[in-house]
Design goal:
The structure holds two protein chains of two kinds. By secondary structure, chain A is of the alpha/beta class. Chain A folds into six domains: 58 residues, no CATH class; 96 residues, Glutaredoxin, CATH 3.40.30; 214 residues, NADH-ubiquinone oxidoreductase 51kDa subunit (Rossmann fold, 3-Layer(aba) Sandwich), CATH 3.40.50; 76 residues, Ubiquitin-like (UB roll), CATH 3.10.20; 69 residues, no CATH class; 26 residues, no CATH class. In chain A, the strands form three sheets. A six-stranded mixed β-sheet of chain A has the order 6-12-11-15-13-14. In chain A, helix 14 links the parallel strand 8 and strand 9. Chain B is 21% helix and 15% strand. Chain B is built from six helices and ten strands. Chain B folds into two domains: 71 residues, Ubiquitin-like (UB roll) (Roll); 149 residues, Alpha-Beta Plaits. Chain B is globular and about 55 Å long. In chain B, helix 2 packs antiparallel against helix 3. In chain B, strands 2-1-5-3-4 form a five-stranded mixed β-sheet, with no helix packed on it. In chain B, strands 6-7-10 form a three-stranded antiparallel β-sheet, with no helix packed on it.
Chain lengths: 599, 239
């Protein structure tokens, strides 16, 4: 918001900060966006010139990320979290109130350039919504009173730093603790374990623990680390995936806020095991508010010789961690897209093989692990495999942090042993009269009450942590629509089935919800959805049709109830299509409408 | 023993490092494709070359050939899926074949015929897109772009000019030109560039030339694409 700075000076600073390295392009663009509320045309040419890139290349990167713009946003850039859980707690109404109060339509910037208003994908505050972002800083627990207050602050041009702190308060909201949250780690204990016992023995311990990736895919952590360690290379890389973008999940937020020390310990442990010297924490833009504390924690660890050169006095054990920010792209939670983004590019998932463990960041063998996985690894290094195996099932050892939101009395973070049933979870969080539970976000499964005896485990309901609860008062088709809209917004656009299929599905679904569809449309949705599932380039495309396919399978009556009985209905509203003609002819009498005969 | 896989019952030999597509093309087996051109690094975005390898769907152009693999290419299921993919490409842009100079030599049209796509059943998106006629020799009709990125790859990897890039995301993904105005005429593009000769559809077209080869006598009017191959490899259409 400091417009007196010159583009040249700001860019010179940023280039210096980021080592004049074209691989840091995204971080440099984020820096420019933060200062000028867009990336001005002059900045494009200047950066392109200094980094030997093209202007079009920069436009491509900016065009990919939701939070980068080539046109100025308002001094106050407000984005309302549009996840279904935020909507259920009234976010759309609050956005309407804000729009009215500030005189700005959602999706636009006010003429005086003071404020922009829009919607964004889930900001990771499902337990304390409705939530929003102002210049990427999280606003929580919004109420009509708070909207009034915010509108007032904006009209007064109050600098963000002087806004009342309670507007930005994010509570941890831990409702149930188990193995990970109940136990502490003595600082340096995990790193000491690899230094004193050696990488091979540590890998053996990790293997015996049965630890699997907590992001949802469940790949065996020891195996991933071993592949990377065995790949021949001069340099290896550790990446922590803190791009927690799955709608309805927020448990990494809590870990990053309360457990950054254990996370960095886990990353350093991994570095010691695989022989990496470089580490990255890829932090989603929505969690910008955590950045300063995380940087401080890194510095504290450097000062304590837990990062940097000769860690814990061990010659040759050199490792440090940089934090990179995301810029509003769900797909960057996919590990190869995340690596592309770390390299300053559009977040398009890579062709695999090669896998990141052999060719990752800048072609170097790279381990990408979720926040929770790295913390669990650190705890296993310190406490042993048996300790970890004391919870969970044979195939799913240990515990899982769940982010529980939606229709329940006590939303928040719950740590359960793997194998816990949905019934138990619903009872503990005070959910009653439940119609369905969405497990693992929009890409996951919608579970009806007849299956509430199923359990959270890799062998049954696998999840990165998102659990959204819908009571019988909710219209599930609204939920399915919200999820389909999400995938339209977040498809990277690379492959045909996902790029086009997400939009076609959205349109057909809208036809159903608005009461214009026939059974033929359901057949088409099935056809489009299974094609997307089988032919997409990555996991996002392969699961983007899940809400529709799953909804039609588990709740067929909801879809059937909206169908017209005719065999064919046009994909558009005939009467609405006449609107332009009515305007041109200046007519709005009965005869100018389909019901009136259209004469 | 040389290594081989079996595609629809036919043995296809391959060398280490080849993809299913490389080996199939070398053996004269046609697998429908649009974004693939053997002169460039494979891309895997159009997904038309989807086959099943030992029962699993994968894009032939980016799948390493494996010894003894069972590959299915011409099955009814795969052809039906390709027809839907083709329809997606048709409704995503604005493709008016009868009014297009590339008709008859267009790979999108030819693959659609080959796969038996007769009419689009999907909802047309009718996007608003521009025509860029700013360059003296070549015009770009963005209505017909299918985002194969062949021009992007050719300009970057062969011409060394990086005239093109991809911007936007999702259904808003689009081709951009590297110049301050965004116009081709203000870029370093030249009609002699490799990038001017790789477009599989009618998005990048030469000016001052129209219907040199009459309709009815064009590349894919005479023989199916499975026999004559990619239009980019035909000199008559890319001179």
């Amino acid at each position: 918001m400091t417009h007196h700075l010159s583009v040249e000076d700001v860019i010179a600073d940023l280039l210096g900060q980021w080592g004049h390295d074209s691989y840091n392009l995204l971080q440099i663009l984020i820096g420019v966006q933060q200062v000028f509320s867009h990336v001005p045309s002059a900045a494009l040419d200047l950066i392109a010139d200094k980094l030997s890139l093209t202007r079009a290349n920069l436009e491509g990167v900016i065009g990919f990320y939701s939070f980068l713009h080539t046109q100025p946003r308002g001094l106050y850039d407000l984005l309302i979290s549009d996840n279904i859980v935020d909507q259920m707690s009234g976010s759309r109404e609050l956005a309407g109130l804000l729009a009215q109060r500030l005189g700005v339509e959602p999706g636009t910037t006010r003429e005086d350039g003071v404020v922009s208003l829009g919607y964004t994908s889930c900001t990771g505050m499902g337990d304390q919504g409705p939530a929003a972002l102002v210049n990427n800083h999280a606003l929580t627990s919004l109420t009509p009173q708070r909207i009034e207050q915010i509108a007032g602050l904006i009209e007064e041009r109050m600098p963000l730093g002087e806004w009342p702190q309670e507007l930005f308060a994010v509570s941890e909201n831990i409702q149930r603790r188990d193995l990970l949250l109940d136990n502490d780690l003595q600082e340096g204990a995990a790193i000491d374990a690899v230094v004193s016992r050696g990488a091979e023995q540590l890998l053996g311990e990790l293997e015996a623990s049965g630890l699997r990736g907590r992001g949802g895919a469940g790949f065996r952590t020891a195996l991933k680390w071993r592949f990377c360690r065995d790949a021949s290379a001069a340099e290896r890389v550790v990446v922590c995936n803190a791009d927690e973008g799955e709608p309805g999940t927020f448990k990494d937020r809590v870990l990053l806020q309360a457990d950054a020390d254990r996370l960095f310990e886990g990353m350093t442990l991994c570095a010691g095991v695989i022989g990496a010297s470089r580490g990255f924490l890829y932090l989603r833009a929505e969690y910008l508010y955590l950045l300063e504390d995380l940087q401080q924690e890194l510095q504290r660890r450097r000062d304590a010789n837990l990062l940097g050169e000769a860690i814990l006095g061990q010659a040759g054990f050199d490792f440090d961690i940089e934090i990179h920010l995301g810029a509003g792209a769900y797909i960057c939670g996919e590990e190869s897209a995340l690596i592309e983004s770390l390299e300053g590019k559009r977040g398009i998932p890579r062709i695999r093989p090669p896998f990141p463990v052999t060719e990752g960041y800048r072609g170097r063998p790279t381990v990408v692990n979720n926040v929770e996985t790295l913390i669990a690894a650190a705890m296993i290094a310190a406490n042993g495999a048996e300790w970890f195996r004391s919870r969970g099932t044979d195939d799913s050892a240990g515990t899982k942090l769940l982010s529980i939101s939606g229709d329940c009395k006590r939303p928040g973070v719950y740590e359960y042993p793997y194998g816990v049933s949905l019934e138990t979870i619903l009872h503990d969080c005070g959910a009653e009269d439940v119609q369905a539970v969405q497990v693992a976000g929009p890409a996951g499964q919608c579970v009806p009450p007849s299956e509430f005896d199923r359990s959270i485990a890799f062998e049954d309901l696998s999840t990165g942590g998102s659990i959204m609860i819908f009571s019988r008062q909710r219209d599930l088709l609204n939920v399915v629509e919200n999820f389909s809209d999400f995938f339209v917004h977040e498809s990277c656009g690379f492959c045909t089935p996902c790029r086009v299929g997400t939009t076609l599905l959205q349109k057909r679904l809208h036809k159903v919800v608005s009461g214009h569809a026939t059974s033929e449309d359901l057949v088409m949705m099935e056809r489009l959805g299974s094609l997307m599932r089988e032919s997409s380039h990555c996991g996002l495309g392969a699961t983007a049709a899940n809400p529709v396919l799953d909804g039609m399978e588990k709740f067929p009556e909801l879809f059937a109830a909206r169908l017209k009985s005719t065999s064919f209905e046009p994909a558009f509203d005939l009467d609405a299509a006449l609107e332009e003609a009515r305007q041109i002819s200046g007519r709005d009498d009965a005869g100018a409408h389909i019901e009136g005969g259209g004469i | 023993m040389s290594r081989h896989f079996v595609i629809d019952g036919q043995r296809v030999p391959f060398e280490e490092g080849e993809t299913v597509m490389d080996a199939a093309l070398a053996a004269g087996v046609y697998i429908p494709h649009l974004c693939h051109n053997p002169e460039f690094h494979p891309h895997g975005s159009c997904r038309l070359c989807m086959v099943t390898v030992n029962g699993r769907h994968s894009a032939a152009c980016i799948t390493p050939a494996a010894d003894g693999a069972e590959v299915e290419n011409n099955s009814d299921v795969l052809m039906a899926q390709r027809r839907t993919l083709l329809q997606m490409l048709f409704v995503e842009g604005n493709h008016q074949c009868p009014a297009c100079e590339k008709s008859g030599a267009c790979q999108l049209q030819a693959v659609a015929y080959y796969c038996g796509m007769l009419a689009p059943e999907l909802t047309h998106l009718y996007p608003k897109r521009e025509v860029d006629a700013s360059h003296p020799d070549v015009a770009i009709d963005f209505n017909r772009c299918i985002l194969c990125e062949l021009c992007v790859r050719a300009s970057r990897d062969v011409d060394g000019k990086d005239v093109f890039a991809i911007s936007g995301r999702g259904i808003g993904t689009h081709l951009v030109v590297n110049s301050e105005s965004g116009k081709l005429g203000d870029s370093q593009f030249d009609a002699g560039d490799k990038a001017a000769h790789v477009c599989p559809v009618g998005a990048i077209l030469f000016k001052h030339r129209g219907y040199d080869v009459p309709i009815g006598e064009r590349l894919y009017d005479l023989e199916p694409i499975s026999r004559v191959g990619d239009v980019a490899a035909q000199e008559d259409y890319n001179g």
